[in-house]
Amino acid sequence: MQIFATFEHSTYVELALSTLDKIGIKKGNILAVSLENRIENRRLFDTLHRADGVSLFDKGAALAVALSVAGTSIGFALEWGPIWWGLIAGACGFLLGFSIDVLIYKVIYKRKRLLKGKKSEVILVIECHPERVDKVEKILWDHLALGVAKLEG
Fold this sequence. Notes:
49% of the residues lie in helices and 14% in strands. The protein is built from 4 helices and 4 strands. Helix 2 runs antiparallel to helix 3 (82-116). The protein is rod-shaped and about 85 Å long.
């Protein structure tokens, strides 16, 4: 049976490995792989084949509708008329909403993502007998594993 666990790169990984060695799991049955975390920033605009669920269109569309209605109403009293003022106000509303979304996702959420921490940096793959699975899993959780999975094989 195989057990997979992810850890932050810390001394807890070494402690977990030494505890596993003490209960009789040989070093040849343990695979530790260090991960390289993403260093490039996430793309702000989605493509046809990749979308992350973040929409920069929503606030812009809502403000475009609201301001175009207001611009059309005011446009009846202005020289260019309601159609032109509605289009101008709608374009300004869309640009305002779009720039608010870009500001929120580039500045505020970037700071929150940097502060979160907790990244998987090490993967442990442990091959053991089925009667030891519960003990190995408890050891991994006690040494602050971020996630643990079992695979019967």
